[in-house]
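lol forgot to send this yesterday, sorry. struct tokens for the thing we talked abt
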């Protein structure tokens, strides 16, 4: 398993305990994001919905509590309506019935009055009353010995949890003090975004895969993270002193003074290495014989990251993930809001090019408010599939990108394309957006290049045909690896099977690059393989035109590109691609890398 390119990202909390109270513990896991964080833990526990405690109220607090209940019921209904409307679009009338039935349960006057009456009579908080009253109702249904009623019991349980979640809403971030190291079993990308508002120093998680979006986000935010620790939540509590070693994928709890001092020294040394890499800032990413000029650009999640791109010497944006606009707000941003973001992005980056990817929702990036679950979300309603099924959403985003295109050099890229039909549907949606802007008399750049992500194996196999339909390819190895090798990118249990340097991946990449070049279009890579130092030389040798990486990785990738001749890179690529096992590929590349 390769780790992401090293980038020294370090920070120290203001209040590290001077002397540890307990013996040092070292927990091994996976590298999420490089860097060293020395600080104090905040142990995040998602709400335990089944264990509401009885909380007495003063009589003066009862009216506020009833209002809190009403608000939670309103929010739960709002969520259910949203889910019902999505289901209606996806499945037609039949599918949404269940959610409409849940709304009826939620608003059942008998139930709501019983809850309200008990809050008033017993002067206790709504949580335990909601839990007890709905659970009672649910058990009655389940005990009736009728499958249909038992299923309604499960629906009731869902309604109960939804109300309870809303009653407790807002607690997630409010308890977190700034500058803490977040310890959690797992976090969604949306959680990371919420936490990032409190300036955390780093993250340590029991679960999570290295190319999951949670890990990618921590890298983009420049926050050290370790994943797959499995027992960190049972060993570390809020307030404990900890060190996140994002270079080795390790968490140290209760570090000794020597350990802390040694990490401080390492941090200093790494800062010096970064300073040396900074010397390459103004030099081009070109092979040492000057024969191949590579376009080295950044992957961005936030407009603010343009500063990090400039600091790393990035020559533009190869991937702007737009999902975060949406995850951060918990709703779809309007055309105006999106236009403002894309305008800011394009005008600040100009004259450098910016590739904006349309929403790639689904998979591990679901809206917090939409809590429907799919059995296999990565094989489910995701990326271009959602956009094609929700034309109004797609139209809004495309209009916004086109409107902003007058500000700079925009490119548009579509995610999760599986074949020609989807590529054509995406292009047709773009033409519709262009036509509507023309009708409205709104200016846009009609020459914006259109590209597709090649990240689904079917698209990789059809790359020669697809290349004739678009202006560029960008290889999304994070997904390509998971789909090609059938390994969930977010599952740390099978992480040893997630092998970006697998011969099947390299041969697929070769086929994609060749197909693109035969059709005369450039081929980029924006998956994490592009930021993997061991892969840099063979990718240059295969003819990859553009490497798009998290900004902290730019300088190191440039250093490697500048350290090889094109002929050597081609030789290494040919040799690696002839090897039959991942082990042999890694050994071969490690050999060349060590000689650099
Ligand atoms: C990829 O799949 O490699 C990619 C860059 O897209 P994402 O990580 O957002 O799925
Ligand atoms: Mg992808």
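and heres what i got for the seq, position by position
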């Amino acid at each position: 398993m390769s780790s992401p390119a090293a980038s020294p990202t370090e920070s120290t909390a203001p209040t590290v305990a001077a002397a540890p109270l307990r013996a040092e513990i070292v927990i091994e896991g996976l590298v999420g994001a490089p860097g060293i964080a020395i600080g104090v833990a905040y142990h995040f526990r998602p709400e335990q919905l089944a264990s509401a405690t009885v909380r007495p109220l003063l009589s003066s607090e009862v009216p506020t509590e009833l209002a809190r209940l009403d608000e939670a019921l309103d929010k739960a209904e709002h969520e259910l309506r949203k889910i019902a409307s999505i289901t209606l679009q996806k499945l037609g009338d039949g599918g949404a019935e269940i959610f409409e039935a849940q709304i009826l349960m939620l608003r059942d006057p008998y139930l709501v009055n019983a809850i309200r009456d008990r809050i008033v009579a017993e002067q206790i908080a709504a949580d335990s009353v909601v839990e007890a009253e709905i659970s009672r109702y649910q058990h009655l249904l389940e005990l009736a010995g009728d499958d249909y009623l038992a299923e309604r019991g499960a629906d009731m349980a869902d309604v109960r949890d939804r109300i309870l979640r809303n009653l407790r809403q807002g607690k997630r971030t409010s308890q977190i003090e700034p500058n803490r190291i977040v310890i959690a079993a797992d976090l969604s990308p949306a959680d990371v975004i919420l936490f990032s508002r409190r300036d955390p120093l780093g993250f340590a998680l029991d679960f999570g895969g290295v190319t999951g979006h949670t890990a990618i986000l921590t890298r983009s935010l420049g926050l050290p993270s370790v994943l797959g620790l499995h027992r960190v939540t049972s060993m570390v509590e809020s307030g404990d002193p900890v060190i996140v070693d994002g270079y080795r994928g390790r968490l140290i709890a209760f570090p000794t003074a020597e350990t802390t001092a040694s990490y401080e020294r390492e941090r200093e040394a790494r800062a010096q290495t970064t300073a040396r890499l900074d010397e390459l800032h103004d030099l081009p990413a070109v092979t040492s014989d000057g024969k191949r000029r590579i376009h080295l650009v950044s992957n961005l999640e936030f407009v603010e990251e343009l500063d990090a791109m400039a600091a790393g010497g990035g020559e533009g944006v190869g991937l702007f993930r737009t999902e975060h606009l949406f995850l951060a707000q918990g709703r779809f941003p309007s055309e105006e809001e999106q236009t403002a973001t894309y305008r800011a992005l394009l005008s600040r980056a100009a004259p450098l090019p910016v590739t904006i990817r349309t929403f790639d929702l689904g998979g591990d990036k679901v809206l917090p408010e939409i809590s429907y679950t799919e059995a296999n979300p990565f094989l489910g309603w995701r990326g271009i599939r959602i956009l094609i099924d929700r034309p109004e959403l797609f139209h809004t985003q495309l209009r916004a990108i086109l409107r902003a295109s007058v500000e700079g050099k925009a490119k548009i890229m579509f995610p999760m394309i599986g074949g020609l039909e989807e590529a054509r549907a995406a292009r047709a949606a773009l033409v519709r957006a262009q036509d509507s802007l023309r009708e409205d008399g709104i200016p846009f750049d009609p020459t914006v290049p259109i590209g597709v992500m090649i990240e689904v194996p079917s698209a990789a196999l059809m790359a020669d045909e697809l290349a004739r339909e678009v202006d560029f390819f960008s290889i999304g190895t994070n997904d390509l690896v998971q789909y090609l090798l059938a390994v969930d990118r977010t599952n740390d249990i099978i992480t040893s099977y997630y092998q970006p340097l697998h011969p099947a991946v390299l041969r697929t990449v070769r086929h994609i690059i060749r197909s693109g070049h035969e059709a005369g279009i450039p081929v980029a890579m924006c998956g994490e393989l592009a930021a993997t130092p061991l892969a840099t030389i063979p990718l240059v040798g295969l003819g990859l035109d553009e490497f798009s990486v998290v900004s902290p990785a730019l300088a190191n990738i440039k250093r490697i590109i500048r350290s090889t001749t094109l002929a050597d890179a081609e030789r290494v690529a040919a040799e690696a691609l002839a090897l039959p096992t991942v082990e042999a590929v890694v050994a071969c590349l490690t050999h060349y890398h060590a000689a650099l």
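Residues 216, 319, 321, 360, 455, 476-479, 526-527 surround phosphoenolpyruvate (ligand 1) (CB under 6 Å). anyway ping me if u want another try
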